[in-house]
Amino acid sequence: MALIEANSGGKRVRPLLSLWFGSCLGVEMERLLPVACLTEWLHSAFLIHDDIQDGDIWRRDRPTLWKSHGIPTALNAADWLLSAVYREISSISLDPSSRIRILDAVSDVHRRTVVGQQFDLSGRADPSFSLQRYEELVRSKTGRYLALGMVCVAIVKGLDDGVVDTLWNVGDQLGPAFQIQDDLLDLTKGKGRGGEMGNDIREGKPSILFAHSLQSSAMTDADKSRLVSIMDRSREETSTTDIQECIEIFDKCGSIEFAKAEARSRSAQGLGIFSDIDELSPLIKAEFESICEYLTERNR
Predict the structure, then answer these.
(1) pLDDT, tens digit, for every residue of 90-110?
(2) Rounded distance, CA 201 to CA 74, Å?
(3) Dist CA 5 CA 242 (whole Å)
(4) Three-state DSSP class for 62?
(5) Structural domain range at position 42
């Protein structure tokens, strides 16, 4: 069940990023595949937990695992996937110190992602939610999580801590850019949730649009009260008209354009940091520019 869920589709951004970076650095495929796999097992486990906590019934245009097979089975599948992460680490041909570095990296990302998810849960429909809190959330939940594969590849290759730290910094910019684009895509029908749009609104999730609009000078007291009221409703009580009303408030506050500009800016900052790594060739840096563009311009 766990493997079926993990292989149900998706963008595969993290394993593909790992495979691309490792191939560029000349890492042998037998050492590279476990790194790519561990990033996808971790991601799939987090998504199962996320769907349960959010009450999401669609993922990748099919029923979520908890919806189709029940919460106990879904939790068990996620637990199995987490165990698979550490099995992959043990299978990589590494010296003991490098294996410890990878274990530290994976466990740190695991911890940060859980903390970020709690920031997400505590920020839902919160009228005091701010852009600063959004930054804390997205760096914890998405930033280093996105960089993990490249960091593990760098460790396998034997690159020093300076390069690893720089790759983490890349994630601190590119991860938020990726999440901001996700926030924007939620306002469309192309996010793989059974054709629904506005699911973040239905769940009261603290997106960058929600955070920015609350701090906007264009937000009236009446609009704020209405927005928070809709965000605080249950999924079943939130209508398509409610969703459209929230989108209109976001647009009125300039939050949609702000989010688009912020995604582009964070992507450019991530690319700039990556481009400063002396150990990487001009070709790798040029290819990474295309990757950054995809992450912030994608339509799914």
Answers:
(1) 999 999 999 999 999 999 999
(2) 24
(3) 32
(4) strand
(5) 2-297
Q: Are 172 and 146 in contact (CB under 8 A)?
A: no
Each residue of 206-241: pLDDT tens digit?
Answer: 999 999 999 999 999 999 999 999 999 998 899 999
Among 214, 215, 186, 216, which residue's Cα sits nearest to residue 202? 186
Kindly state the tokens that stand for 109: 């990302």
Number of domains in the chain: 1
- The CATH number for 24's domain is 1.10.600.10
0.85 cut: is pTM over it? yes
3-state helix, strand, coil in the chain (%, to 5): 75, 0, 25
Strand runs (DSSP E) across the chain, as ranges?
58-59, 62-63
User: Can you tell me the distance from the alpha carbon of 79 to that of 283, in angstroms, rounded to the nearest whole number?
Assistant: 39
SS3 sequence, 201-265? HHCCCCCHHHHHHHHCCCCCHHHHHHHHHHHCCCHHHCCHHHHHHHHHHHHHCCHHHHHHHHHHH
